[in-house]
Specification:
By secondary structure, the chain is α+β, with helices and mostly antiparallel strands. The chain is 36% helix and 21% strand. A 5-stranded mixed beta sheet has the order 2-4-3-1-5. It starts with a helix and ends with a strand.
């Protein structure tokens, strides 16, 4: 056995010992409820312009819809995202090329009523008409509205 082999074996044994210690360490348990298990409604202003920047004219509206779905999935952490027809009409109202720079949307995380669905929750994205985007922030809305 050469000294290089001995160093390799020593290094491997230290590494396995370290991994063993990490596996055997007590896991810290979280206390409280997970926010993902709750039904919640929030309003967001989505800056669509930055999501469709550089996209060709004939793909801008479809790209905006995909960006809204991706945004909702990221914010609500649900892979099942459904776009309301009024929101779809609003995005497409100025044609395929001329998409609004910003849009105000309401994201509802709802319980999935389908028994055969793979996911417990889905997100419904609806349009919120506003006069101006100045001073608007993300806000949580009561579910009764």
């Amino acid at each position: 056995l050469t000294t290089a082999h001995a160093r390799k074996l020593e290094h491997v044994s230290l590494l396995t010992l370290l991994l063993f210690c990490l596996e055997m360490a007590p896991k810290s348990e979280k206390k409280g409820r997970s926010a993902l298990k709750e039904v919640v409604t929030r309003e967001y202003t989505v800056h669509l312009h930055k999501y469709i920047h550089g996209t060709g004219f004939k793909k801008r509206a479809p790209c905006a819809i995909k960006a809204l779905k991706k945004f909702a999935e990221k914010q609500m952490k649900t892979p099942d995202v459904r776009i309301d027809t009024k929101l779809n009409k609003q995005v497409w109202s100025r044609g395929i090329r001329n998409i609004a720079t910003r849009i105000r949307v309401r994201l509802h995380r709802k319980r999935n009523e389908d028994d055969d669905s793979a996911h417990k929750f889905y997100t419904l994205v609806t349009y919120v008409p506003v006069d101006s985007f100045k001073g608007l922030e993300t806000k949580t809305v009561d579910s009764e509205e």
